[in-house]
Amino acid sequence: MGFEKFGRRSFMAATKVAPLVDFLAEGKIMGSVCRDCGAKAFPPRSDCVACLSPNVDWFEMPNKGTLATFSTLQYAPVGFEADAPYTLGLVEFPDGLKLFARLAEDTNLDDVKVGMDVTVRTKEYDDGQLSFEIVKA
Amino acid sequence: MPSKDVAIIGVGQSSFVRGYEGSIKELAFEAFREAMQDAKITQKDVDASIFCSAPEYDKQRSPAGVMAEYLGLIPQPTFYLENVCSSSSQGVKVAYSMIKAGLHDLVVVCGFQKMSEISSAESQERMGRGADIQWESPFGTMMPGYYALYAQAYMAANGLTLDDLMSVRIKSGTYGQINERAVYRKGVSAADFDPTNEKARMWGPVASPLRVGDCCANADGSSCIILASADRAKALCEKPIWIMGLGAASAAVNMPGRPDFTKGLQGPHLASAEAYKMAGITAADVDVAEVHDCFTIAEIMAYEGLGFAPVGDGKQLIRDKETYKEGRIPVNVDGGLLSKGHPVGATGGSQMRTIVLQLRGEAGPMQVKDPEIGLVHNVGGVGLYSNVTILGR
What we know:
Number of strands of chain B: 11
Structural class of chain A: mainly beta
Shape of chain B: globular
Order of helices and strands of chain B: EHEHEHEHHHEEEHEHEHHHHEE
CATH class of the domain at 6-119 and 218-236 in chain B: Alpha Beta
CATH superfamily of the domain at 6-119 and 218-236 in chain B: Thiolase/Chalcone synthase
Order of helices and strands of chain A: HEEEEEEEE
Oligomer: heterodimer
Helix content of chain B: 25-40%
Distance between the termini of chain B: 13 Å
């Protein structure tokens, strides 16, 4: 699949890391790891920024982390209006990698706190778009 | 002592408004006319021009040539510079570099933005695409949401309260109401943030924890800064204001690439350290500052990024009113972005103009007592580009 399937609405189709979308369809959230120096990255990249190597492989991301921060948007940009309000969040994993996504739609916002334990999981929208989302642990 | 090599010899700014009735050329001309009359020069004195904006708001492709023609600045070289919200600060830095290198002696930097040609929602979509369109825009991001991510984590860690953020907005209103160029010219009080007050305009949630009153407004506007070499400045200008220090830094556009959100934006720490070193001063030497308060939380983070307060303790400056005109370090005593409005490409130049007027003693009712050193903190994106400029008499 092309990268136009990524997220609630994608703004691009061509990227070497488009296989991320295929992994999402299989229920896996993947980052990239350099075969030469071992540096990990999320979001995934096709070139290692640490040693400049093009030899990059996939690895499955951890799924348990803490919520570094979040915000509930009452207004949405063009193309996202029907979804508002929704909550954006940033997860920090024990290995230091971070993931930016929305919180699951059924999250009780009264329970959401900076620093709380969360998990991440894949998400398929009704229109077939593939993404990942944050869930209270 | 820092060298006095490049000076600002003229400043201008249009009124910042909602729905400017003219074209971008006419908008730019308003600031240009004021700066040229301020510098008492004509177009034949100008060696080059730089035009600064965020291009996604413009229908005009490659605006520099069109602007240069309308302003009468052809056939001199001209070009276009984009650094989103900090475009015109970066324009001043490039003009400084060209003059210092000996390429040109007198350069016009004109920032402009007409944001009202597109709807507020479309504008937010474009601002959202100031994020990485691969990894973050697909979630439906907006500028208020990004600054809100910082606010949420920072407030949880440092005891900053919504009332503190409100205090920043109240200070802004104190000066916005006496700035005739500001888009929002009403005073602000705690009652405006009271959800039980039917007439309250500022409590409505935008992106938690930020409310309407925590956010600056889009606006149309232009600014113009004229820079000259030392020889030209001394020949042309009675009160040259010298560029003493320049600092800049970049940061990861993707939030996963950012360090600890509880400590605020990191770019301004780097940019201010560089600028202070070049100027041979410390934060304590700054007499008046303009900071990029696109959101109330941004002003608190700026206090810390500039070294006016320790990290985590910026709240104390606003609680003690130390950033008011009479305080230890007056900040945004022209109303800042929160009151002036934020015509992206024009904002940095507008901040420079305010500091130049302050250092000349020409700031009218907003004048701080006898400042010698002023500072401009102008940030593009969510701390994506940080620029600090230090000016002195």
